[in-house]
Amino acid sequence: MDPDVTPRQLAGTWHIVCSTFPMWLSGRRSGPTFTYTPLADGHRMRDEVAYRTRRGARRIMGTDTRVGTAAYRWRGLGPLALLTSTWRIAERSQADTWAVITFNRSLVTPAGVDVIVRAAHLSDETAFAEALTAGERHGAVPVPVPGVGLGG
Q1: How far apart are the C-alpha atoms of 139 and 100, rounded to whole Å?
Q2: What is the tally of helices (H) and strands (E) in the chain?
């Protein structure tokens, strides 16, 4: 059974620590994060994906609309407005320090898994180890996290 995960519970910045997504595994992008900001309606949130390349910081903006207890539909903003993707929280820690996101194939991306850790808990060795173990369970490999000696 899916957990009940509201935009308010997801609010804040999360670091991707494990993934199956080629964009994070190619070596051309580093330090990927998701920042979720709940919107006033309680069912949507602003979604900012940030990462670094050799040319500097980049970001992808979108809006996530809740479509189930733990499922969301992402729609890009601006030039990406035609793109959508459905994702869900497949697993999360009891302490809400990490979560596993599974996402469906979209027009331009394959299906995959990201394991994320809240920014405030990156230095928490227990939370980080649990997230890496969750990544193993879901077939996701560690992604280096800049500035963190654990797992990266």
Answers
A1: 11
A2: 3, 9
Give whole-number Cα distances, 11 to 14, 36, 51, 65, 89, in Å: 9, 5, 18, 14, 14
Question: CA 126, CA 37: separation in Å to the nearest integer?
Answer: 26
Closest CA to 3 of 77, 140, 76, 96: 96
pLDDT tens digits, residue range 74-85? 999 999 999 999
The percent of the chain in helix, strand and coil, each rounded to the nearest 5, is: 20, 45, 40
Q: In sequence order, what are the residues at sequence separation of 6 or more whose Cβ sits closer than 8 angstroms to the Cβ of residue 40? A: none
Predicted structure pTM score: 0.93
- Write out pLDDT tens, residues 120-140: 999 999 999 999 999 999 999
